[in-house]
Here is the input.
Amino acid sequence: MIRTSIFSMDHQKASDPISLGMGGVVHCSPHFENPSNISFLDSKIVYISYHNEYEIKELGEWNASLVIPSQWAHQHFCINHFGFENYNHTSLKYGVGKILSKRWSLGTSIRLKHLYFAGCQEAQLFLYCNIGASYKHSDKINISLLTHNILESELTSTDEERTKENHALMACSSFRFLDNARWCLEIEENNWCDWNIRNGFEFVHERLSLRCGFYMLPLIPTFGCGFNLDWIQLDVSSSYHNQLGYSLAIGIGSKF
Here is the structure.
């Protein structure tokens, strides 16, 4: 029997309201897709979000994450679920980030993915590894690199078709041009043959955060806002595709 593999050509998608509001910039995610970004945190963080694409209930995604700082390294735990009865996947992720020097930090994460789709005889398990690095030039400039799915292992073996995740390399620059405003530019290389650009802005006024941006191709505008109520943070954002319609993300988080 001939075995086939399907490679998804989708770019890495932001599934939280902060990233989505800022043009889908992955490095801004409160679920810390880049594990090196947790290294500079000084408190525990819990964040839960829901993302729905194009107002289709079957395309809903839940994420919940927890960051625990410690003296030797910062740890990150995340659970993710996407899909519906006939197609769904659930992932468990564990990441570690550590400061190497005043400006450099390094992080890595492993993710166990359970995939099921209608017609497969056995649900499939995959193990992925991400590696990230961050360079903090100053309080105003930060540069991050992330290798997504640099290592992949299939833990089950079947004759069914399967969907593999892309290998991707992402670079992001964050410029804080005002004390309460920042601009993020992210470039993604996908499977050595495809490129994407994401661009986002955030302006903070007291307890209110306003966000906007775009990603391409095609050109998709995004916008969102957040409210910081001392011990709790609320975020909401949306994006618009001129043929498929609106996508919505909401999230709630807390530091303690």
About this structure: Helices lie at 17-21. The longest strand covers residues 104-117. The chain has one helix and 16 strands. The CA atoms of residues 16 and 169 lie 20 Å apart.
